[in-house]
Design goal:
This protein is mainly alpha-helical. 80% of the residues lie in helices and 0% in strands. The chain has one domain.
Length: 51
């Protein structure tokens, strides 16, 4: 495997991790703000829409 390919895979992983981090922060803020119902089916549905 060439160095260019390793760098490309690494950058894609960082982009995916960055997107995941942004979604995680949004989910956490929604839970704190009370806009997601915790412990209910509706709450799970709201989480799945965000992810």
């Amino acid at each position: 495997m060439s160095n260019n390919r390793k760098i490309s895979i690494s950058k894609r992983t960082e982009i995916i991790d960055g997107k995941s981090k942004i979604k995680a922060y949004a989910l956490f803020e929604s839970l704190i703000n009370g806009s997601i119902e915790v412990g209910t089916t509706k709450g799970l549905q709201q989480i799945h829409v965000m992810v």
